[in-house]
Design a protein that fits this description.
Rossmann fold, 9 helices, 275 residues
Length: 275
């Protein structure tokens, strides 16, 4: 069934992609375009992508549960649900429409679904001068270090083997959608090690899905200074993990950030950098 699903998706993707490229040829003859019509092939392609990324053929849950991302699907490529994918699409398309420079990154990618979707948006828009950074240990979450981060004391997420998805598995998922290319860059390792020296100049969208206080703080400390004014920070676990929420509050308070935190669904939030 797994192979059948992706073969079917591949055929649908090729048909949609041919329409996207046809529309692009009929459009402006620039090196890339950062605008796209709200209707048409690109719109259909991204809607299809969201359904494919969140679809599980082994789990049966109601549509609202999957839309809210309240479950841990056994085979879907993302667990964040349709509402958070809609938010991600809004943030990425908005910075493209407004010409906010910078790349896109997710810290904590699981099976790669959100980063695959970011790359798909660039594909639809014909944008070839931005990158999607895929940052993860690809070994699950780190054991807590409560002496340095008391909020993480007692955290057991590092024992959840289902959260450890290998780099090769994530790359394979990109490849299944025809989106593994040189615009996708992988940062492997604990965030404390991989992010400080990451060769990223500027960012337009930062999506945090590290769950823990330490992982959230490491990402904010190392990536927020690279976020272009007008870009977005998205925090996946703000509503459901108190340690993550505390890290966000501590970081914002220390740097005097007063930009409004806006809810996405029961757990996700985001804000736009104003200064």
């Amino acid at each position: 069934m797994e192979g059948t699903r992706h073969t079917r998706f591949g055929r649908m993707r090729r048909r949609l992609a041919s329409r996207v490229h046809r529309d692009r040829r009929l459009g402006e003859p620039h090196r890339h375009r950062e605008t796209a019509p709200p209707e048409g092939a690109g719109h259909l392609y991204l809607d299809l992508m969201k359904r494919c990324l969140t679809n599980s053929i082994y789990d049966t849950c109601d549509e609202q549960t999957r839309a809210e991302g309240c479950d841990w699907p056994r085979d879907a490529h993302t667990m964040i649900g349709l509402k958070r994918l809609d938010n991600l699409q809004f943030c990425v398309e908005d910075v493209l429409d407004r010409g906010i420079p910078g790349d896109f990154i997710e810290t904590g990618v699981w099976r790669g679904g959100a980063t695959i979707f970011m790359r798909a948006i660039l594909e639809v828009r014909g944008v070839n001068d931005r990158r999607v950074w895929v940052a993860d240990s690809f070994e699950g979450l780190p054991p807590p270090t409560p002496e340095a981060y008391p909020c993480d004391a007692g955290d057991v997420l590092h024992t959840y083997k289902q959260l450890a998805v290998s780099l090769e598995a994530v790359q394979s998922n990109f490849r299944r959608y025809g989106l593994l290319d040189d615009q996708v860059r992988f940062l492997k390792g604990w965030f404390r090690d991989s992010l400080p020296g990451a060769p990223i100049a500027r960012l337009a969208v930062i999506r945090l899905d590290g769950d823990m206080y330490e992982s959230t703080m490491d990402a904010l400390v190392n990536l927020y200074p690279k976020l272009t004014v007008g870009g977005y920070v998205i925090v996946d676990d703000y509503g459901c993990i108190p340690a993550c929420r505390q890290a966000v509050h501590d970081f914002r308070q220390a740097r005097g950030i007063a930009d409004e935190i806006r809810p996405i669904d029961w757990t996700g939030v985001y804000w736009r950098r104003s200064a």
